Amino acid sequence: MTDSSSTPSPTIAERLAEFTATQDGAAIPAQVRERARYLILDAVGIAYASTHYEFAQRALSAVRDLSAGLGQVPVIGLPARLQLRDAMLMNGILIHGLDYDDTHSAGVIHATSACLPAALGAGAQAGRSGADLLTAYIIGMEAGTRLGAVAKGGFHQVGFHPTGLIGAFATTLVCGRLYDLSAPQLAMAQGITLSTASGSMEFLNDGAWTKRMHPGWAAAAGLTSVTLARHGFVGPRATYEGRFGLFQSHLGRYAEGMDLALATAGLGTQWELMNVAVKPIPACHFTHACADAAAHLRAQHGLTAQQIRSVRALVPQEVVKTVCEPVATKKRPQNSYDAQFSIPYIVATALLRGSFGLEHLEDAALADPQVLDLAQRVEYEVDPNSPFPKYYSGEVIVTTTDGRELRERQEVNRGSADRPLGAADIEKKFMENARLVVSPQRAAQLRDLVLGMEALDARQLAEGLAARG
């Protein structure tokens, strides 16, 4: 007679594996599937816009070398065919390259930029339907956002980027679902991913391009782990909660504040995808509230540079390392990526120009003497009343040369779950991004293709998103 008390409790990896293997796509609420299609639409528009920039062309040159001309997998918005892992890497770079892609606030993760390249590539390669692709994408989003939330913002504090790190586990489940792995194989694949997941925040010190590659690399890592698991390769069991599991090994002293229960809480009944925030501003989400606050002060008071003596920006303690330090490069960004993670530059731009958009990442804008001069007068302070990570709040306080103090607070950042961008807003953003590089007619075709993806197969979708000609 077997003693049931000796049976070990399921690990987090095993519970996520069971969810991935058994979730009925038809049981996912219609509103969740619809929102998922709009998140994908947003990502595709950003990918198309990214093809306009140097980083995309340099990345494509590199991954073409890796594929050695042997690949047949199309790339979003580009006339290129690559091997599967390389196409995933490239698509992730395009979606995340402008830092304009969606964010799950509690997980502090850009989950779509990893899950969509994985779903698109694996779905097409495995001959799955568009509906299957969408289901796998949703499953990855549900797992990735929860795993990110466990850390409660701790990964950033020790220099790990959750999108690359956690994204690899999410994409493992995406690919595993599309390749029909069993629950035991899916659990094993997550254990393998523990040795491939990565993502350093060191780019913050000099505006390096490495963050752009994190989600695509996560997708490639997920595919690798799934393929090894399919062939019987053995990975560790306690992937997340083990002595040297993900959280203990990557959070350091912040592991004390983690909540492992969040990794699987409400799976299949509460849909975290609905809490994913679509970005209205092409910059780190941590800067958005201050950007909007500064733009509001500009609209309300018509301030000029000469009227501003000093500026204080109140931000959550948890975001200081990302968007406020090192102070010297934040006040004088070295390149566009530096600028997207700079409270001084973004606040100064919004105060003087009334908004912050892609045009403010061009070389001429980065060299604007008025903006750079004002950025020197922008200081940050830790917001004692921050609701982080539920909201990425921000407050801007302007002291004028005639002694007035003007202040504006954005408690709930625009685009968040409690202040979301709706379908019409996302379509507008998509069209603006896509039309940077294609005609209005082609942009409309792409929109209809994505929103109608469940009537297609995954290969048709992947081919349809590629550049023509």
What is this structure's SSE topology?
Layout: H1 12-22, H2 30-50, H3 54-67, E1 73-75, E2 78-82, H4 84-96, E3 103-104, H5 112-125, H6 130-150, H7 154-157, H8 162-178, H9 183-193, H10 214-230, H11 246-251, E4 276-277, H12 288-301, E5 308-315, H13 320-323, H14 327-331, H15 336-340, H16 343-353, H17 363-366, H18 369-375, E6 378-382, E7 394-400, E8 405-410, H19 423-434, H20 440-451, H21 458-465
Parallel strand pairs: 5-6
Antiparallel strand pairs: 1-2, 3-4, 5-7, 7-8
Could you list some keywords that capture this structure?
alpha+beta; 2-methylcitrate dehydratase PrpD; 60s Ribosomal Protein L30, Chain: A; 2 domains; two-stranded antiparallel sheet; 21 helices; 49% helix; MmgE_PrpD_N; MmgE/PrpD_sf_1; lyase activity
Would you mind describing this structure in some detail?
The protein is globular, with a radius of gyration of 22 Å. A hairpin with a 4-residue loop joins β7 and β8 (405-410). The chain has a four-stranded mixed sheet with strand order 6-5-7-8, covered by helices on one side. The protein is built from 21 helices and eight strands. It has 469 residues and is α+β, with helices and mostly antiparallel strands. The protein has helices at residues 12-22, 30-50, 54-67, 84-96, 112-125, 130-150, 154-157, 162-178, 183-193, 214-230, 246-251, 288-301, 320-323, 327-331, 336-340, 343-353, 363-366, 369-375, 423-434, 440-451, 458-465; strands at 73-75, 78-82, 103-104, 276-277, 308-315, 378-382, 394-400, 405-410. The protein has two domains: 8-279 and 449-465, 2-methylcitrate dehydratase PrpD, CATH 1.10.4100.10; 285-410, 2-Layer Sandwich (60s Ribosomal Protein L30, Chain: A), CATH 3.30.1330. Helix content is 49%, strand content 8%. The mean pLDDT is 96. InterPro entries: MmgE/PrpD_sf (IPR036148), MmgE/PrpD_sf_1 (IPR042183), MmgE/PrpD_sf_2 (IPR042188), MmgE_PrpD (IPR005656), MmgE_PrpD_C (IPR045337), MmgE_PrpD_N (IPR045336). It comes from Extensimonas vulgaris. Residues 282-451 form the MmgE/PrpD C-terminal domain.
